[in-house]
Specification:
about 45% helix; HAD-like_sf; seven-stranded mixed beta sheet; two-stranded antiparallel sheet; about 350 residues; Rossmann fold; Heptose_bisP_phosphatase; alpha/beta; HAD_sf; 9 strands; plasmid; HAD hydrolase-like protein; elongated
């Protein structure tokens, strides 16, 4: 790489520094003139690909609070060329260097503001302890050296499953873009009655709506159904009829991993799979502060917990205002079901 190309590469790296109201933006502004001088000196003196790669890999371009900046402004450093020489000589130290106090405090501040949104009470407490432990804070600080605005998982299961190597898991998470789940309303969104009746009162009186199976099969991640079933409380059908109804729906839509339903005014939630069913709300006592009946977000929180997914990476489809309201309350994206059946999942590649 010639001098001009290398200079441009370093300028591009420095352009990714914190700006505006981002943390450390004011510090980055203080470093600007020094950075420009360092870029100019590096383009003139670094001729070998090895030296160029070392300087381009320096995390100080993204992190204006990197401890090496302090060395550059220290009286021991008599010129920018000295700083450049020092960086090259200390490559082993700073390429794998320990997190400095400023980086640690910055990462700690971010994690203290991050709220675990999905999981049981026990899982959430455990996840918060892991996230805010020195190991978790240091892992985020290291990730921020190359990712100024990293994505942080808000599902408890993610932290628990990755507790042995949080750093590697966080690095992988940035590349994967997180984990999402599609939460699908059923009646009027995916299925309809064969008889023409408004509600399904017989497990076999249902069929897939046009385009529903095809659209669901294109979704690149886990799918879970979510339906209000007040007919059980009103005695239009029994609990077992409702369970068999959902199991028949699972046969119609093999893409669905499970179906959640609320048979009352929001007090309980049941989970149905092909081979079993259970009152899953017993496992989430903290979620009773939310109504399990849409527009309450309780069922959506349980769906994300089952999938180990985060709200910001998830989507709900539905056909009624209460579906949209439930999605908003759970902080997940929403798409109208008729659009989903005809055009597929909006933003699927981004999720």
């Amino acid at each position: 790489m010639d001098a001009l190309e290398f200079e441009q590469r370093l300028n591009d790296l420095w352009a990714e520094r914190p700006q505006g109201s981002q943390p450390r933006a004011a510090l980055a502004r203080k470093r600007h003139e020094l950075a420009k001088r360092l870029i100019k000196a590096a383009s003139e003196h670094c001729r070998t690909p090895e030296d160029q790669e070392v300087i381009a890999s320096w995390h100080g371009w993204h992190r204006p609070d990197a401890i090496h900046w302090e060395y550059a402004t220290d009286r021991r450093c008599t010129g920018i060329e000295d700083f450049l020489t020092w960086l090259l000589a200390q490559r082993d130290e700073w390429m794998d260097g320990a997190v400095n106090d400023c980086e640690f405090a910055d990462a700690q501040h971010i994690l203290l503001k991050t709220r675990i949104q999905v999981g049981s009470v026990k899982q959430i407490r455990w996840a918060v302890d892991l996230m805010q432990s020195p190991k978790g804070i240091e892992a985020l600080a290291i990730v921020r050296r190359t990712t100024p605005a990293p994505k942080i998982p808000t599902g408890a299961e993610w932290w628990i499953e990755n507790r042995e190597d949080i750093l590697q898991a966080l690095q992988n998470y940035q590349q994967s873009g997180g984990k999402g789940v599609l939460i699908a309303d059923l009646d009027g969104s995916l299925r309809q009655t064969v008889s023409g009746e408004t509600f399904i009162n017989d497990p076999d009186d249902q069929e897939a709506m046009a385009g529903a199976v095809e659209a669901l099969n294109t979704v690149p991640y886990e799918c879970i159904g979510c339906t209000n079933q007040l007919g059980v409380k009103l005695k239009h059908k029994t609990l077992m009829d409702t369970v068999r109804e959902q199991q028949r729906t699972l046969e119609l839509f093999p893409k669905l991993n499970a179906i959640l339903f609320c048979p009352d005014d929001g007090e309980t939630c049941w989970c149905v799979q092909q081979d079993r069913f259970w009152r899953i709300s017993d496992d989430y006592p903290h979620a009773t502060i939310h109504s399990f009946r849409k527009p309450g977000p309780g069922m959506l929180f349980i769906a994300m917990s089952l999938a180990g997914a985060n709200p910001e990476d998830s989507m709900m489809i539905g056909d009624r205002p209460e579906d949209e309201a439930a999605a908003r309350a759970a902080n997940v994206q929403f798409q109208w079901a008729d659009e989903f059946r005809t055009k597929g999942l909006r933003g699927a590649t981004a999720l």
